[in-house]
Amino acid sequence: MKKTIAFVLAAGMLALAGCGADQPTQTTAGTEETTVATTPSATETTAGSTQDQTALEEKMDAYWNGLDAQLKNEAGYPAGNQGMGAVVLAVKDGKVIFEKAYGYAHYFDADYDAEGSSYANPVYVKTEHPREMTTDTLFDLASVTKVMATTQSIMILVDRGEIRVEDKVADYLPGFEANGKGDITIAQLLTHSSGLPQWAPTFLYCDSKEEQLEFIKGLELNPEYKTDGSEPKYSDFSFMTLGFIVEAVTGQDMDVFVKENVYEPLGMTSTTYKPLENGFTKEQIAATSLGNPYEYRMVDEKNWQGVGYDCTGDAEAFEAFTGWRDHTLIGEVNDGNAGMGGKGVAGHAGLYSTAHDLSILLQCMLNGGEYNGVRLYSKDTIDLFTTKHTTYQENHNDKEGKPALGEEFGYGFKLDQSWMGANATEKVFGHDGFTGTTVFADPENDYIFICLTNKMQAGFRKSTANGADEDVSNYYNTSAFVSKNMNEIVREQLGI
């Protein structure tokens, strides 16, 4: 029986409790046919009794309220959780057992006229009208785009027989074979095992997706990177390339293809690239960073050496670049290569969505590729993409001689990550994003957990956080402090 996710108000909670679908449909004259889910009694909710649900909310609230001190004391973040917000959603057996919004969707802006304020280190000021987070808020998903847009598109094309993961990239993107890249396969892109560089500031050189594609065709492989899956090197270029493959095969822009073939059929009405051009307003979207201070630090090797990747070869282009953003990003993609270079659409970043919409797509995968009567792809395709295709742990040990937890991938999906919880296995698949987003599904427990935050609104950590003896120049790790711990609270409550 295929499950749809239904939302009903749980007594005494701002969170929502739902019941599984596959209920009869009812029609009313003059209205569209809709799926109707019956409301469970207070003692039939997934989390248990009303008291159990109240206890769960109290625990989640207590964690959020205690996060402020934890971040200040342990993560080296001076303002604690001030300014940021989150939406947390948990689904078990097709039923929403927790959903709640915390904090602010927009709290800080930059004062570039303040003493010491700069592109690399803007001075934060409280906005005149802070906007509270709601469960309907859209988030810049960052790299979650990789599995909720690009991988989904590739899965559909594989399922339809239009491409194979064993195919060479150059078969679809003529010219990609330059500089020794002729044997790279789609599978190697999906597992970050292609040998492509991990990142470079394409926005310094490119003003369009077409220019970005030419930039990628001219890339050279890193001779130190292994291509057998034993040591994946997470690469945005791999997924930028996959996005271009989708466009080459379908003849459609990637955002159009995934909208028409995934989001619209599933009723994901709040999932889109370029939200401000697709019917959404800034009031509906969570703010992220104040310009691009982190990427500025990555590229400025003179004043911020060692941040991110080595960009010494981009010094001349960096000095000439005048496109740095100096305003709060709301509905504009934070990622520079997607936002400034790709004009909002890319295979590695750029997608916006809500926790509710993302749960629909994950539930579709847990259902074997079908949701509410709509089939996207077969269960065999899902199994192919969520099975481990890398061997990092088999080739690396930790200090105790045990297999080291590292980057393990199916096709596109990250598997068995620390932020998925202590009980996660290789069957658990999902992804995280730099803006503070995490999503995953656990097939063995029919469980979905989504934590979307706008951590970048709250700024940088102190330069020597948590005992570090060098400048970390980073936003604090939301995955470690919010998603992981809130997930553990829910799983403990459910006994899974």
The CATH architecture category equals 3-Layer(aba) Sandwich
- Determine the structural class based on helices, strands and strand pairing: alpha+beta
Note the beta-strand portion.
15-25%
Q: Which percent bin holds the helix content?
A: 25-40%
Physical arrangement of strands within the biggest beta sheet = 7-6-5-17-16-15-14-13
Tell me, briefly, the overall form: globular
**N→C terminal distance:** 22 Å
How many runs of DSSP E, i.e. beta strands?
17
State the name of the first-level CATH class: Alpha Beta
Oligomer: single chain
Present the secondary structure layout.
Layout: E1 8-9, E2 16-17, E3 25-26, E4 34-35, H1 50-74, E5 85-92, E6 95-111, E7 123-132, E8 139-140, H2 145-159, H3 186-190, H4 209-217, H5 236-250, H6 254-266, E9 272-273, H7 293-299, H8 315-320, H9 336-341, E10 351-353, H10 355-366, E11 370-371, E12 374-375, H11 379-386, H12 392-395, E13 408-409, E14 414-415, E15 429-433, E16 437-442, E17 447-453, H13 478-494
Helix pairs in contact: 1-13, 2-5, 2-6
Describe this entry's structure for a reader.
- With 496 residues, the chain is α+β, with helices and mostly antiparallel strands.
- The chain has a single domain (8-24, 34-147, 272-494), classed as Beta-lactamase (3-Layer(aba) Sandwich), CATH 3.40.710.
- The chain contains 13 helices and 17 strands.
- The strands form five sheets. An eight-stranded antiparallel β-sheet has the order 7-6-5-17-16-15-14-13, sandwiched between helices. It has a three-stranded antiparallel β-sheet with strand order 8-10-9. The protein has a two-stranded antiparallel sheet with strand order 1-2.
- Helix 2 (145-159) crosses helix 5 and helix 2 (145-159) crosses helix 6.
- The protein is globular.
- The two termini are 22 Å apart.
